[in-house]
Specification:
21 strands; five-stranded antiparallel β-sheet; alpha+beta; six-stranded mixed β-sheet
Length: 501
């Protein structure tokens, strides 16, 4: 359970409790606890000195840079550090900072609201004016939730709309995609707006039929599968590229290579026109409730009118829990932007808002070398130091802020199978890009000692040389990331043995 979070979160006043120093890198001014901890040899052969983590790192075979720090949560003392002051790409570990930024700025009680507004008078169920679907920055709205809004609109007595159907997404900046360097078709890189649906993804499904394929594009959820027109797919005779994208007449026009489709399948594609996408789905759901709406039109100026229906999201900690569990990039970008807007920011880009968040983290968390280009970690130009991050994790754990929202990280047997009986328990946030692997969070050792740790690794040179524009895995990326994850576990097991026996 998350304790009450004050306006200043866990900041400022408590900072001096980390090793008697400041809250940032200065907190690690004291020397690490010696890793030359004696171990008794069998049969009384005396003692040997623990060689430290160096042999593990060398044997791990992870090319490029490896950096990690582990500290005792209770004392704040650094137990072990390897290149702790080196700034590396954090990948999705960035979301840890985003979570704190949003919690402090928006508050733990914050809910995002999506509203239906009538611009004009409603008489006997007839709206003589425009109906507006007003986005409030909710990153978790799905088709089931939108159906609930439509049903409540019917319950409110609305039967007919004589004016236009408008969709407002201007509560947040309009951004075509999170990271322009990603392949066009990857579903984790959608457009960002003040309104979203199904994480701004459309479901593409294909089935063999007749001489070709039957394709559908819909906004499916557990209960509904409304088809959409704003995104269209055409099967073409080619082998590569697998997908192409074009913005044609304000719609997402996709093509897919016939040779890549096989016997059928499905995948989620990113949406680039969120307002029209949400509007088309709501139009379908409203029609099912007896309310006919005109084709949706996106507007950037917020209309003013009478609120007919308000739909609230879950509280922010629950949204963050889902973000950390599933690593949803859109959630991170939307709550990060919402925090920047709340703080009075004028940033109209992810990089501008991320710069505000970096400056906040420098001033309030002591992460003075933090440089972020987004809130999700998808962009590989972001940089973070593990010593600064671990200092923040120590303070967050003492106030029960982050750990309750982090998912359990399962350790594995040597053969790769899950080891559910492992005596070391881990809750952490992962981060993965090609030739970038990160992990940060908390360890509970077999004797109950609580540790905070952060691990970053990257081979930027190989990443730049092997990057693929089609979104496929570059040669060697899978094996490199596998080696890094294996090293992460070896280090965690070492910490459990050396510092928690």
């Amino acid at each position: 359970m998350i304790k009450d979070i004050s306006r200043r979160l866990f900041l400022r006043g408590s900072a001096a409790t980390v090793v008697g120093a400041g809250f940032g890198a200065a907190a690690f001014a004291a020397a690490p606890e010696s890793s030359l901890r004696p171990r008794v040899r069998p049969a009384g052969l005396g003692q040997v000195l623990d060689p430290g983590p160096g042999p593990l790192v060398e044997a791990g075979g992870v090319s490029g840079d490896v950096s990690f720090v582990v500290a005792d949560v209770r004392s704040g003392k650094v137990l072990e550090s390897h290149n702790g002051g080196e700034a590396l790409p954090p990948a999705s570990v960035t979301k840890v900072v985003t979570a704190l930024y949003a919690l402090e700025t928006l508050g733990a009680e914050h809910r995002f609201s999506t509203r239906v507004v009538a611009v004009g008078s409603v008489t006997n169920g007839v709206l003589d004016g425009d109906l507006v679907l007003l986005g409030g920055g909710d990153p978790t709205l799905n088709t089931d939730g939108l159906a609930t809004i439509a049903a409540r609109l019917k319950e409110a007595g609305l039967r007919e709309v004589r004016g236009q159907f408008l969709v407002y997404g201007g509560a947040l900046p309009q951004i075509d995609e999170i990271d322009p360097q990603q392949a066009a078709h990857v579903g984790y890189n959608p457009a960002v707006s003040g309104i979203s649906l199904n994480y701004n993804r459309v479901h593409f499904e294909w089935k063999p039929g007749g001489k070709g394929y039957t394709v559908t594009m819909d906004a499916r959820s557990e209960r509904y599968r409304p088809e959409v027109r704003v995104a269209a797919m055409k099967v073409v005779d080619r082998s590569t590229p697998v997908y192409t994208y074009a913005d044609k007449a304000g719609r997402d026009q996709w093509t897919v290579a016939r040779g890549a489709l096989g016997k059928g399948g499905s995948r989620w594609l990113p949406v680039r026109k969120p307002e029209i996408y949400v509007g088309e789905v709501f139009q379908t759901l409203a029609r099912a409730n007896g309310i006919a709406l005109k084709a949706p039109k996106a507007v950037m100026t917020r209309p003013v009118g009478t609120v007919l229906v308000t739909h609230h999201s879950e509280k922010l900690p629950e949204i963050i829990r889902g973000m950390l569990k599933y690593s949803t990039n859109l959630t991170a970008e939307m709550i990060g932007l919402a925090a920047s807007v709340k703080r009075g920011g004028t940033a109209r880009s992810l990089s501008g808002s991320a710069r505000m968040m970096s400056e906040w983290a420098g001033a309030e968390l002591g992460m003075r070398d933090l440089k972020l280009v987004d809130h999700s970690g998808l962009g590989d130009a972001s940089r973070m130091r593990v010593d600064e991050l671990v200092s923040v994790l120590v303070q967050a754990q003492r106030r029960n802020v982050l750990q309750p929202m982090m998912k359990k990280y399962g350790l594995r047997h040597e053969n790769g199978a899950p080891n559910r009986a492992h005596p070391i328990k881990v809750q952490a946030k992962t981060g993965t890009l090609d030739f970038v692997s990160a992990l940060a969070g908390y360890v509970v050792t077999p004797n109950g000692r609580h540790l905070a740790f952060a691990y970053l690794s990257a081979d930027g040179g190989v990443r730049r040389k092997t990057r693929r524009s089609d979104g496929g895995r570059p040669k060697g990326a899978r094996s490199w990331n596998r080696k890094s994850r294996r090293l992460q576990q070896k280090l965690i097991e070492r910490w459990g043995e050396v510092y928690g026996s």
